[in-house]
Amino acid sequence: MKTMMIRIHKILCTVICICFFSSCIQEDLPLCPPDLRIQFTYDNKDDISLFQLNAVKQAVLFVFNEQDSLVVSRTMNLQYNKYIATGLHLDSAKYRFVVWAFNPDTLYSIDPAEPQPGLNKADFRFLINRPSGGVFLSDDADVLPPCLFGTDTATIQGIANEQIKIPLELNKNRLKITVTGLQPTDEKYDFTIEDDKGKYTFDNGFERTNPFFYKKIAVPFTTVKSGGKDVSYLEAILDVLKLNETGAMNLKITSGKGITIYDEDLIALIKNNIIDAVDFKTTHYYDIVIDLSGEAVIVTVNGWTNQNETVELSD
């Protein structure tokens, strides 16, 4: 009987320890054993609300050594601006930390799917799995879920409860495109943005792939009263992946009859019309107004208009 009680006591102690240490992985408990704690930082509260970033629940963490070889990877629950116990115990050395934050079962994935220690960072890719036909239709609210990237280099001392911060950046933008100066009709228009950046490196650079498209189709004229007069315009809101000043995204607006009324490089359009230097890493919402009322097109981006910039109307 005594032997049985001792066995039961040992089993209970083991179960309690397992539960306690498991909870340490997810919670910042003061009595947890020493391990590395990470804080994922994102300070733009407007972005968090606009892009519903609190809905992103998963972060995949990769730890590379100074030779860029993978040491370990770990899937974690994502929380912003709070230290999270990782359960990792790293030797004293310098490491590169890379994190991708996205929800599972969305259009994003990581290649290789089951990373093995020793693989080089240059061999990893973050993939955008495009829908059939390569077209993201903006009428679908969930067509382009948010994804975030973060990286940092830190020297780990191997002491108890070390802490590091990894700043995250959003790889998604929202464009509100308004076209004014057209005579309103019953005709509807298509807004199309062409992209070819379907793979990202683990430095958040990109590799070109076959083109794919973001589309808002069959946009009608909207007419409102302004100053006692009717004012008509076209308006489309499109979500796109990361804007990059070294890349290109083409914006084309066509009528239902197939006539192109606007066809320009979106990146150049933004850079040429924002007087202050644009920071694509921190600016994720762009309000673009294209005025077609005159011989030259006047473009305003986030309230800025470059009066010296003229664009000829498309044929």
TrEMBL record:
It comes from the Bacteria. Pfam families: Mfa2 (PF08842). InterPro entries: FimB/Mfa2/Mfa3. GO terms for cellular component: cell outer membrane. It is found in: Cell outer membrane. Keywords: Cell outer membrane, Lipoprotein, Membrane, Palmitate, Signal. The keyword Membrane applies. Residues 1-25 form the signal peptide. Belongs to the bacteroidetes fimbrillin superfamily. FimB/Mfa2 family. This is FimB/Mfa2 family fimbrial subunit.
